Amino acid sequence: EKGGYPHFMLKEIFEQPNTLFDCIRGRISADGTKVQLSGIEDNASRFINAKRIVLVACGTSWHAGLIGGRLIEELARIPARVEYASEFRYANPVISSDDIVIAISQSGETADTLAAIKLAKERGAFVYGVCNVVGSSIARATDTGTYIHVGPEIGVASTKAFTGQVTVLTMMALAIAQLKGTISPDALRSTAQSICKIPSQIKQTLKLNDKIEQLSRTYTYVHNFLYLGRGYNYPTALEGALKLKEISYIHAEGYPAAEMKHGPIALIDKELPTVFIAPKDELHEKVVSNIQQVKARGGSVIAIVTAGDEIIPSMADHVLEIPSSPECLSPIIASIPLQLLAYHIAVMKGCDVDMPRNLAKSVTVE
Ligand code: F6R
Question: Whose CA is nearest to atom 11 of ligand 1?
Fold first, then answer.
């Protein structure tokens, strides 16, 4: 049932070209001119008139929410807030019937997320679910939603669900932007076409597996890791750090790269490797200077860069090249090498990657 792979996690990482194909299928028209999600089309006036969107989730799903919130704000021009479900439910939040709450959950059974939905509904919000498990409690408790359709996720560490969630949230932001007229037809088409390329770009990215397995040997026994990224890839950094923590038990922190100088830089020495998520984008130059700062302090650098990057390879200790994509889609592709890095380090340490200690696949208690 592991399809020849030693662990479910590796199987699920390698499944992503197919799972994302299934996730996108039927939702983007063949010519890329239309993004169709029935949950949004059937509730068009709510989305057009929404004053605010609040995304609630836990863990990896919350990281997907951070990316989704930014996309919704940037493309659909609706103020978006992203909350941990466990905080939202006890915060006495100001929520009204002009608000849309998007709840994101792979399992659809997370207790805190379910409670956040209940509260949002009591306060009159329209609640939209982004779930994987069909017919789950959260799928039933929400007013409507979109399934990510990535198939059962067995490994405790979420991989294909994360990329599916980000893909659905991207399509949602485009669909809302299309309804509201906040995106030009050209920009819509080019982003939609770029989404359709993701499955094959992930296939390409998975070829990094051997290289990542090799470099994992260098870092198997370190005690700390730092993950840095900016903009859309700040949540990617958080997600990379969480993956490493939960399956290899190595302490890791994710930060926005520019925050490094406000504290974490004090940690850097030759014992602390830093993973930079540094694809070619508007802030590329700034990330380059952050890499220089780490190198100047003796830290080693693993950099995820866009293929053809001419600057970073001369500075970093290890370079992992990913195919080029629009900035807002880069987290989906950049998270693949981070999943593989966490996987290989954990396997080399002898950890049980599919069933890490102290963790359960769905957290149905508070
Ligand atoms: C991390 C992980 C957890 C879940 C979190 C929410 O790899 O799997 O952080 O993302 O427990 O679970 P769902 O998405 O099922 O609500």
Answer: 59
Question: How much distance in Å is there from the Cα of 58 to the middle of ligand 1?
Answer: 6
CA distance 35 to 27: 6
In tens, the pLDDT along 208-265 reads 999 999 999 999 999 999 999 999 999 999 999 999 999 999 999 999 999 999 999 9
Atom of ligand 1 nearest to the CA of 107: 15
Q: Is the CB of 157 under 6 A from ligand 1?
A: yes
Distance 164 CA to ligand 1 centre (A): 13
Is the Cβ atom of 335 under 6 angstroms away from ligand 1? no
- ipTM above 0.95? yes
Ligand 1 pocket check for 59: Cβ under 6 Å: yes
Please tell me the pTM assigned to this model: 0.98
Give me the helix-helix angle, 160-180 and 330-349, nearest 10°: 170
Give me the helices (H) in 33-159, please.
38-41, 44-49, 59-71, 85-88, 111-122, 137-141
pLDDT digits (tens, 9 = 90+) for 105-159: 999 999 999 999 999 999 999 999 999 999 999 999 999 999 999 999 999 999 9
